[in-house]
């Protein structure tokens, strides 16, 4: 209703204005007024203008959370090894077998060689020194026998033992060793020469003493025996510990080994 009243008032005022001016055809003016846009009154409407509602903000897509497990490399810490240790007290013995032939003419003082344990040895805390463990020994005496076997010198001392790959110092004595073997230093030819020389000396002595063949033969026999004794008494010998010979060592201090 309000829009129609306003439109009629505007139309009336327009007619009056045209008539007052008198400058034109009223009918034509009226027609132009009628040709005005039908909804021109909308501009005069006292209704508040409709404003478009602002579009709702599009929610932001949250960024994917960073995985701390992926960002930080994981490191696994192995459990600490709890290796057992056992001990052998002073006085304990180990039976060994030499690994090679050891002689006074091949091994000098300071040279080392290995032997192996021939039986398991039980230590404390359930630890065992297994058969086949390597023991290192050092030559402390090495001299051939001058004028007989009795002067041969060949002696050793234990240095270390290796048990399951771990080496430990070893303080012990060699308390038993297999009988040594002996090799003559002089050749058989030299020995035969000594015997022959003794026989010749005996034969000459027999001739001087008896002045006959019988005495000469007896003198030669006696001389040969004397020459043989001289040869044996003047022979030099090398002493040897045979390969795989038995030895026994006795601890003088406690030995600690890993299980």
From TrEMBL:
Annotated signal peptide: 1-19
Region described as Disordered: spans on this chain: 40-84
Record's keyword terms, sorted: Signal
Keyword Transit peptide: no
Ranges annotated as biased composition (Low complexity): 42-55, 63-84
Protein name: YMGG-like Gly-zipper domain-containing protein
Protein species of origin: Pseudogemmatithrix spongiicola
């Amino acid at each position: 209703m309000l829009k129609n009243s306003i439109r009629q008032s505007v139309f009336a005022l327009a007619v009056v204005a045209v008539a007052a001016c008198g400058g034109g055809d009223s009918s034509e003016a009226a027609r132009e007024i009628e040709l005005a846009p039908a909804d021109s009154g909308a501009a005069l409407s006292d209704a508040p203008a409709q404003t478009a509602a602002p579009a709702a903000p599009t929610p932001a897509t949250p960024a994917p959370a960073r995985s701390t497990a992926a960002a930080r490399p994981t490191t696994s810490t192995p459990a600490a090894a709890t290796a057992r240790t056992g001990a052998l007290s002073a006085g304990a013995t180990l039976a060994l077998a030499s690994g090679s032939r050891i002689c006074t003419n091949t091994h000098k003082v300071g040279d080392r060689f290995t032997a192996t344990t021939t039986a398991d040895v039980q230590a404390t805390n359930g630890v065992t020194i297994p058969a086949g463990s390597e023991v290192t020994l050092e030559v402390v005496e090495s001299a051939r026998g001058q004028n007989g076997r009795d002067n041969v010198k060949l002696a050793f001392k234990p240095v270390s033992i290796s048990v399951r790959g771990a080496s430990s110092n070893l303080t012990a004595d060699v308390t038993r060793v297999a009988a040594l073997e002996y090799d003559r230093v002089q050749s058989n030819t030299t020995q035969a020469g000594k015997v022959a020389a003794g026989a010749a000396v005996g034969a000459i002595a027999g001739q001087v003493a008896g002045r006959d063949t019988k005495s000469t033969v007896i003198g030669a026999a006696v001389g040969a025996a004397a020459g043989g004794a001289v040869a044996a008494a003047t022979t030099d010998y090398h002493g040897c510990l045979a390969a795989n010979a038995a030895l026994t060592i006795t601890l003088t201090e406690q030995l600690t080994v890993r299980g």
